[in-house]
Amino acid sequence: MRTRKSVYIDRPVADVFWYVADFSRHAEWRSELLDTQTVGEVKEGVGTHIRQRIAYQGRTLDANFQITDFVPGERICIKAHGGVHAHGCLDFKAEGTGTRFDASVTVELKGALTMMERYIQQAVDRVADADFERLKGVLESGA
């Protein structure tokens, strides 16, 4: 299952990039996120391990991932490890006076979940749309 989202944010690329790169602030704009911890010695950039606790459809789960690509002002890529197999990238591009923020994530669904892909995709898209609008609002209000 692949999800792609894009939003224009009327803030410079550096502002948007560094805000999004600070995973400890994700709970400010991601509705399902309960908390985030950086685990290990690497605290920023490639090799950083991040653990997030997520509430989704009445359940709480831990998501563990590692930053696999980190180009300041341009791109952050992650790969999940553990129970969920997923990878994705966050891309930042100057557009006019602001920033085009694009995200793409691929999740491997297995077993019975493959039969529910359409419904899972719709739910993920709804949450992502709302979260991107929240991110836009937070950043454009001066965060």
Q: What is the CATH class name? A: Alpha Beta
Decide which structural class fits the backbone. Answer: alpha+beta
Helix content: 10-25%
The main sheet comes to: 7 strands, antiparallel
Q: Write down the overall geometry.
A: globular
Task: Give the helices and strands, then pairings.
Elements: E1 2-9, H1 13-21, E2 33-39, E3 49-56, E4 59-71, E5 75-81, E6 86-95, E7 98-107, H2 117-140
Antiparallel strand pairs: 1-7, 2-3, 3-4, 4-5, 5-6, 6-7
What does this entry look like structurally?
With 143 residues, the protein is α+β, with helices and mostly antiparallel strands. Helices cover 23% and strands 44% of the residues. The chain has two helices and seven strands, in the order βαββββββα. A seven-stranded antiparallel beta sheet has the order 1-7-6-5-4-3-2, with helices on one face. The radius of gyration is 15 Å and the shape is globular. The protein starts with a strand and ends with a helix.
Brief summary:
With 143 residues, the protein is α+β, with helices and mostly antiparallel strands. The chain is built from 2 helices and 7 strands.
Q: What structural keywords apply?
A:
143 residues, single chain
